[in-house]
């Protein structure tokens, strides 16, 4: 496998991460997961912009200019002959003696990127999934795509241990998002999702879904959804780069709508399929 380290493409065995890398020790860094369809990086500009924003929010300078990074990522996909899959990009604040304070300008952030297998969850996309509720105990800057994913990891494992597909996080009675997905409910034909504030990650798939709604006359509104109102949802679904759009047919033991993927969800899946190669 070929791996991007800073601006260089190397073989995997030529790349080593230092024991004092701050990403490793503090989760001090940011990341992106991008989708590759037919050899093309999907919504690459949006992902790069979000990476730059995340870095900016944690007061870290990316080690490469975005246009250079974009070129290298395209080369990475091509050198690894990725047809359908994903690319993981991570930037840590760099290598320095373990100390909570920032290491200063002389330390360069460390960027790595490499391909990940990315298979569509075809079965789940078609049949829908069950999710379970988990308290959202994350920090209050969930809008930053940071490497600190401990609660996301804990929540996801709890969901899997209970035999469900995803953890639906809730804070103060409102549904924020999934452990690695955004959440939506449909009521009387309108699609609702949590406002893009500090409590959720503004997903690139989410932004595409909003665009698709507005271009196709599907009513859409950013609004807080309450866990107590879940039985009144006609439909629900989750989205991310890796899973695209997956219908939610059950929240805990409560059946959503008719217990099968709803019409609005299916329409959005179809519209989404049309904008991917
Ligand atoms: N996760 N919310 C959270 C907490 C996420 O981690 C993700 C993505 C999303 C969806 O964002 P997008 O549509 O841009 O993928 C929402 C990635 C895929 C991951 O961590 O693997």
Automatic annotation (TrEMBL):
Its EC number is 2.6.1.21. It comes from the Bacteria. Keywords: Aminotransferase, Pyridoxal phosphate, Transferase. Its cofactor is pyridoxal 5'-phosphate. It is an enzyme of class 2 (transferase). It catalyses: D-alanine + 2-oxoglutarate = D-glutamate + pyruvate. CDD domains: D-AAT_like. GO terms for molecular function: D-alanine-2-oxoglutarate aminotransferase activity. Belongs to the class-IV pyridoxal-phosphate-dependent aminotransferase family. Homodimer. Acts on the D-isomers of alanine, leucine, aspartate, glutamate, aminobutyrate, norvaline and asparagine. The enzyme transfers an amino group from a substrate D-amino acid to the pyridoxal phosphate cofactor to form pyridoxamine and an alpha-keto acid in the first half-reaction. This is D-alanine aminotransferase. It comes from Metabacillus herbersteinensis. The lineage of its organism: Bacteria, Bacillati, Bacillota, Bacilli, Bacillales.
């Amino acid at each position: 496998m070929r791996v991007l380290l800073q601006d260089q493409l190397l073989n995997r065995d030529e790349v080593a991460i230092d024991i004092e890398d701050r990403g490793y020790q503090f989760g001090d860094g940011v990341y992106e997961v991008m989708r590759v369809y037919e050899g093309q990086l999907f919504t690459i500009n949006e992902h790069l912009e979000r990476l730059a924003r995340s870095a900016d929010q944690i007061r870290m300078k990316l080690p490469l200019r975005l246009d250079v990074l974009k070129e290298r990522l395209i080369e990475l996909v091509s050198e690894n002959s990725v047809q359908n899959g994903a690319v993981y990009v991570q930037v840590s604040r760099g290598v320095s003696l373990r100390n909570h304070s920032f290491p200063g300008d002389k330390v360069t952030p460390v960027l790595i990127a490499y391909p990940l297998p990315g298979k569509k969850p075809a079965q789940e996309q078609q049949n829908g999934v069950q999710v379970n509720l988990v308290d959202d105990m994350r920090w209050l800057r969930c809008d930053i795509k940071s490497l600190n994913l401990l609660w996301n990891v804990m929540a996801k494992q709890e969901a899997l241990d209970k035999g469900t597909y995803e953890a639906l996080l809730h804070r103060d009675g409102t549904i924020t998002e999934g452990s690695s997905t955004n959440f939506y409910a449909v009521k009387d034909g309108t699609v609702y999702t949590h406002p893009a504030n500090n409590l959720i990650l503004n997903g690139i798939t989410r932004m595409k879904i909003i665009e698709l709604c507005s271009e196709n006359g599907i009513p859409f509104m950013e609004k807080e959804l309450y866990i107590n109102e879940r039985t009144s949802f006609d439909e629900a679904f989750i989205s991310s780069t890796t899973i695209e759009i997956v219908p939610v047919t059950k929240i805990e033991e409560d059946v959503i709508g008719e217990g099968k993927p709803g019409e609005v969800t299916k329409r959005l899946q179809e519209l989404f399929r049309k904008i991917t190669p």
